[in-house]
Amino acid sequence: PKTLRLILGDQLNYNHSWFKTTHSNITYVLMEMRQETDYVKHHIQKIVGFFKAMRHFATHLKEREHKVIYLKINDKNNLQSLDENLSALLKENNFEKFEYQLPDEYRLDQQLKDFCKKLKIGTEASTTEHFLTSRKELEDFYQGKNQLTMEYFYRYMRKKYNILMLNDKDPEGGKWNFDKSNRKKWKGKPEIPHERGFRKDASKLLEEIEKAGIESMGSIEAQNFNWPESRQDALSVLNYFCENLLVHFGDFQDAMHTEQAYLFHSRLSFALNTKMLHPLEVIEKVTEHWRLNKEHIDISQAEGFIRQILGWREYMRGIYWREMPGYRRSNRLRNQNKLPEFYWNGDTKMNCLHHSIKQSLETAYAHHIQRLMITGNFALLTNTHPDYVDTWYLGVYMDAIEWAEITNTRGMSQFADGGLVATKPYISSGSYINKMSNYCKDCHYNVNKKTEEDACPFNSLYWNFLDEKKEFLKDNNRMGMMMSLLEKKSAKELKELKNRAQKVIKNPERF
Ligand code: FAD
Ligand code: SF4
What we know:
This is Cryptochrome/photolyase family protein. Helix content is 45%, strand content 5%.
């Protein structure tokens, strides 16, 4: 039958079996739509990155003799919504069948299901051939269990794909997890090789986006667009990581520094989440590189990296499909505050927040610990409603697609699911931030003070949080030690801490 096949913006899988052969009766469609640019206010680099990658993908298909319809954002016949565009195309061209790949977002999954119900022609949904688990696999794995500890799922995945295994049950290096040996602060050494930059021109596309009137956040250098737009680009980011960064990845995974946004992180999440790279090829490439360079790359670096992709990434996706759509409304700690205005401009005297936010707005990137222990930590300690937190994280990062964003933000970072993903709230006082970064050195606030005018706000916020939320935390084993320290505080000390914290919570902009 004459078939229309939809490719969504995050379905740029160059090796998908759809493209193995060409058929004169199959047409592919990709579309840039206001529906997708406007469901949240995105970072400008994210909009440019998606459009660039989609356009490149369409060209790639056309060069291989596939029939492709591409709707640009300002095309006259672009009706700007998925349903309307598809309906018009199906009708105009008398297609007899409609096919799509299963979306990774609940929102689009529902939309396409509803759309297909109304169609009078045949429809078919197939897999994106990207993930290493099916949507329901995690749910089945944890059936009957109370706790969804990631580590067990990760071990199951190691065995399932035979990654870093000696045989079918024993891990290489004698341990499943080398996490303990990971945490180091970066003090200018080891040297970080010069960044892998693309310096692409985005000026024409920026004009188109501006003409369309799309609202965005963050900034971009028009002549210096730095993200991969093709599979080839993405592969070069992967190679660069293996050659230059893997060697210290695990050691400095949690480190933060004012002069180094990326440190030894791979920056592969955009290429992975748009499916330009397959998770297994990334894992295999890293494993192979480690094997060939065992004398100077420790297994802990490779294992630490592989765990992020084979473990955490698949785990979060599984949680998403297990918990949606309810997850979107979860707010177990009943937080209600708005996110401070400075999340949109970095304008705060708290140096850790200033740097992490400014960097996010300038690069559409922050690494895991900046997201979790700086911006996420502050939002949680100041009782921010998870809806506001989600809106920010879903917009600001290059890799932000709801399945990965919401599970990390609501679950891992804001404890809004009551401890499904994170076994305890990820919160800290200033001392952890000082331990892992150089932020405190030049801060307006003193990280060693608790309640004075110039005391680090995180210090009082931390104890205030434990006290305010103790009903939710008292049965949590992992919080036991901190809760007993809280109890040992004198009424006077606690009162002073809480007074100071309330000032911050009531008026974060002043800090
Ligand atoms: P690296 O540190 O080099 O790690 C390698 C890869 O592992 C990443 O590219 C990513 O694909 C995967 N990975 C690592 N941690 C996670 C994780 N917790 N969940 C899923 N994949 C992981 N990641 C997203 O892809 N999209 C998001 O929208 C997103 N939002 C986040 C929000 C918060 C509050 C937090 C704490 C984390 C979030 N993460 C998100 C996870 C993680 O921070 C990013 O994947 C990572 O920073 C991307 O940078 P990188 O490619 O340099 O990662
Ligand atoms: Fe952040 Fe406090 Fe350190 Fe300042 S002193 S950078 S506010 S942790």
